[in-house]
Amino acid sequence: MAPLVWFITGGNSGFGLLLAQHALAKGDTVIATARSVAKFPREILTSSALLVQMEITESEANISTAIDDMVEKYGRIDVLVNNAGFGHVGAVEEISSEEARYQFDVNFFGLYNFTRAVIPHMRKQGSGVIVQLSSGAGLLGALGGPVYSASKFAVEGLTESMALELQPFGIRVHLVEPGIFRTDFLKPAAEGRNMGQKKEGYFDIGGAMGGIHGSQPGNPQLGVERIYELVTGTGMAAGLQDQLRMPMGSDCYGMLKKKVAMLSETLEKFEKIAASTDY
Predict the structure, then answer these.
(1) Catalytic positions, please?
(2) Whole-model pTM above 0.90?
(3) Is the dihedral of CA 218, 220, 225, 230 positive or negative?
(4) Tell me, what's the pLDDT at 154?
(5) Based on the number of CB atoms within 10 Å of its own CB, is 44 exposed (0-12), middle (13-18) or buried (19 or more)?
(6) Contact in structure between 15 and 224 (CB atoms under 8 Å)
(7) CATH class of the region 5-276
(8) What pLDDT is attached to residue 274?
(9) N or C end: fewer C-beta atoms under 10 angstroms in the chain?
(10) Neighbours of 178 (CB within 10 A)
(11) Residue whose C-alpha is closest to residue 182's, from 224, 151, 153, 129
(12) Where are the domains of the chain?
């Protein structure tokens, strides 16, 4: 297989950094973005890595220009990984509308703008893979994270539809849905950040999430190996390139089973009501 050119947002930490390092170790080229180039560890500074200082909330025009420049430099982008994101936790009443909008600006509109900028190039080359980092919270809503879940549900809906419209152009689209992995994703909660204004009576999701920081069950290195295999059609993901979703972590798999059970119950109990409303 010829070396791939990857574009990874949020490439300075967590899944983004580990995936960048894994792809570089495989001989691929990686373009990685972060809010500050200074946040990249020195070990990623190789001739095959281009580190770009860019906010995920940059204007659509700036993002489009950056993508165009990278295609001109490398000739193509084979894989876009929309990894950048964060979680703002708290009940609906506890999170302000400004905080909710920013959650969507980062998790949805940032992803949306990078995706829109890459698609024309992938259509022109007749190939490409787009990987959207969603979450188990994009499958099943839970106490304490309605706005975060909403942003990931939006990513799921966008990507599910987009996969159908891009298939004729030879572009594959995947949703990667991690459960709770041992990255720094929960560090803000452990430090009391990215939480709504606490109100009496609501579940303390910030305390619960912060309390498990450092002991999450998911192994992020194994997670990025599975992502790389899904993109390249190798290893455990060989033959799964036609699958839209890849749940990661036994906890996420359990959430998916619960969602399927909920929907199955709805199908069974509401069949007659659904049919009763037709002409």
Answers:
(1) 148
(2) yes
(3) positive
(4) 98
(5) middle
(6) yes
(7) alpha beta
(8) 97
(9) C
(10) 27
(11) 224
(12) 5-276
